[in-house]
């Protein structure tokens, strides 16, 4: 009778040939999951002092690592390559098999950092408030705890439950009232 064993990954403690010969006892070998905190620490230490900053890190159960960085002007391919090399050289592929992608978050992704609000000040944005209201307009002003939006002309008035009404049809929203903000994409 033959035993069938699935190996997710062999550690450096034995070779596949040793397992097949039976010179090593059989046990389930698994992949070590890389922690998000470790990748965040590696990325932040590398980016410290540069014009780039960390937006988000995602690590799947299969060790697919996605790192998103931003810059107040633009993120270059060279910026992504350098950070990717730094993270890759800081991890041991013999112990931790992984797939790594470093990029900017993409134009369709929500803002995750106050610096993104400053970067896109004067641009058109789509704001979704925690109460479900959607506002489309120009991001007029950014402060540490609030933003000012001049809404596009709309047939429906914006409900004034938690926002301040300003002159010239501008609205102020506290950042903690906002569920997400995205750059408005216009295909015209």
Rg from C-alpha positions? 24 Å
CATH class annotation of the largest domain: Mainly Beta
Number of helices: 4
Poorly predicted regions are 1-12, 25-29, 161-168
Largest beta-sheet characterization: 6 strands, antiparallel
Count of folded domains: 3
Q: What is the CATH topology of the largest domain?
A: SH3 type barrels
Average pLDDT works out at 82
The structure class reads alpha+beta
Helical proportion, percent range: 10-25%
Q: SSE string, helix = H, strand = E?
A: HHEEHEHEEEEEE
Query: Count the strands?
Result: 9
At CATH level 2, the architecture of the largest domain is Roll
Tell me the β content. 25-35%
Order of strands, widest sheet: 7-8-6-5-4-9
Overall 3D shape: elongated
Question: How many angstroms does the end-to-end distance come to?
Answer: 68 Å
Plain-language structure description:
The chain has 4 helices and 9 strands. With 188 residues, it is an alpha+beta fold. The protein folds into 3 domains: 30 residues, no CATH class; 68 residues, GMP Synthetase, Chain A, domain 3 (2-Layer Sandwich), CATH 3.30.300.70; 70 residues, SH3 type barrels (Roll). The strands form 2 sheets. It has a 6-stranded antiparallel β-sheet with strand order 7-8-6-5-4-9, with no helix packed on it. It has a 3-stranded mixed β-sheet with strand order 1-2-3, covered by helices on one side. Helix 2 packs across helix 3. The chain is elongated and about 75 Å long. The N terminus is likely disordered.
